[in-house]
Amino acid sequence: MINLLLKRVGHSIFVLLAVAFLSFLIFQFVGDPVSNMVGQDTSMAERERLRTELGLDRPIIIQFADFVTRIASGDLGVSYRDGHRVSELIAQRLPATFELAAVAAFFALAVGIPMGIYCGIHPHNAFSRLFQAVSLFGVSLPPFVIGIVLILIFGVTLRILPTFGRGEVVDLGFWQTGFLTVSGWKSLIMPAITLGMFQMTLIMRLVRAGMIDVLGTDFIKFARARGLSDRAIYFRHALKNTLVPVITVVGLQLGSLIAFSIIVETVFQWPGLGLLFIRSVQFSDVPVMSAYLLFVGVVFVTINFIVDMLYLAVDPRLRTSS
Q: Could you write out the DSSP letters of every residue in 42-107?
């Protein structure tokens, strides 16, 4: 077990280094940050002086080594756009993105799993067919279309929900939350549904397919022959045996909630990390872009590590083999 944990940690460190190098290398070609920081009348000598101060005249390998060294010490650099420390910018935007992703994940799990169980138990029911039809829209439509439709219905036509922003927030000192205000919750509803719709429909269809497959196996027939109740068969035996593939997809999709929140945050002007990344791309702010992609990489690596550990908790065969 210890060897497995150490191996996973080693793989995670290697992946993070690869993500850091690729993000740092790619962003060298998105534009010249010096041109965005100075005016058109700035002389070439002043441009070169600023480039030297920022360390952009050094070889890329040297810049990357300095980048990794600073990250190891907890320093993410300084934003070219406004001169603030990148760690402070991320700390300011992280609560908004985290709360949006958390509510979207709760929506996807709380709605998708029960719908999937119902459709798996009653595959030919009228409601089951209705749920599957709705899931096709959730899988097919891109998030920005869903967001625009929700804004048109609930924001423009009915005027019951705000169409942009985060609403009122409460400053707790270390965290700014919208969970403690009515306007915060109202502002969160449409972005969370938009962000979690694809994950919800995907989870529903996956759980449905797994339940149908498991309910047709011999051990379920044997459980019925033993006189077990339907509740025990459905939830204690069938659902548990569908959890391994579900955990895989759910884990990856929860990570993508943060990675792909860029589109939703842009549509609703949600003041999170995704909107920060879009604005940094427009300004060629390499420190912010690199730190954002590294943060996303950390999220995915952490979730994959947790998923691997959940495998061992759910499936005893994996514990034996490990």
A: --HHHHHHHHHHHTTTS-HHHHHHHHHHHHHTT---B-TTT--BHHHHHHHHHHHHHHHHHHHHHH
